[in-house]
Amino acid sequence: MTDPVAYNPLDTTNLGRSVAEALLGRKAVALNGLERFNGAGIYALYYTGPFAAYRILADRNAAENDLVAPIYVGKATPAGGRKGGAPSAAPAPSLWSRLREHAESIRSVTNLRLEDFHCRYLVVDDIWIPLGESLMIAKFSPIWNNLVDGFGNHDPGKGRYQGKRTRWDVLHPGRPWADRCAARLETADTIDREVQSHLAFVDPPRSPHFLIEELRARYAIGRRVEGIAGTD
After folding, report:
1. Which of 21, 23, 72, 151 could be bridged to 45 by S-S, CB 3.0 to 4.6 A?
2. Strand, helix or coil at 111?
């Protein structure tokens, strides 16, 4: 008989799960027209539109009568966080600004509509932002974080356009700075087929939540142990 592992609510991973669960418990709102707010944190974007490559993803969200399958997960760190310095003490709209940047990227391309996107976002204490983001990505494997990378990229700036255009920008042309980057060998049709094939064979998580699955697994282990003990 294997002894069950003692649950430690203060374990780093469990604390990260609680952050991710808090994000998933937030009501999804339209990405278009978010009111300004201060704070840094994590977020998830959801797609419900007609773009053919994402049909399975959009149908999954519609079938559940809720938004359960994010297309992208990201974070916004406080000012100074990326440079190793102390974060700014003054409140700043880091998370709101990041979501607004994403809205502008979507608005600028030719084959996506901003009204087909919703988001969940959560203002989080700085120390938990990277862990919450990484757990969300590991659980959902969002297509824009993996197979179709580049959505979160910024304009590299003058003199740095020799880098290749991202797969996201090949599939979704229209960002002005991306058009200045070097062309890729892959075509939009190639990436489109890869996305459809990937989504067709990837099983979604049994539950869109973290803590519920964790408690169910531990309860099942406990019941099995009780059953074995009762036969002695």
Report:
1. 72
2. coil
62 is written with which tokens? 């519609």
User: What SS3 class is residue 141?
Assistant: coil
The token pair that represents 51 in the structure block: 């773009």
Q: Specify the 3-state DSSP secondary structure of 185.
A: coil
How does pLDDT run across 66-111, given as a tens digit for each residue? 899 999 999 999 876 544 445 555 679 999 999 999 999 999 999 9
Tell me the DSSP string of 7-46: P-TTSHHHHHHHHHHHHHTSPPEESTTPPP----EEEEEE
pTM of the model: 0.83
Taking CB atoms within 8 Å and a gap of at least 24, the contacts of 5-10 are 7/218
- Residue 53 has a CB neighbour count (10 Å cut-off) of 21
Residue matched to tokens 């049909």: 55
Q: What is the pLDDT of residues 138-196, one digit of tens each?
A: 999 999 999 999 999 988 777 677 788 999 999 999 999 998 999 999 999 999 999 99
Phi, psi of 103 (to 5 degrees): -60, -40
Provide CB contacts within 8 A for 193, sequence distance 6+: none
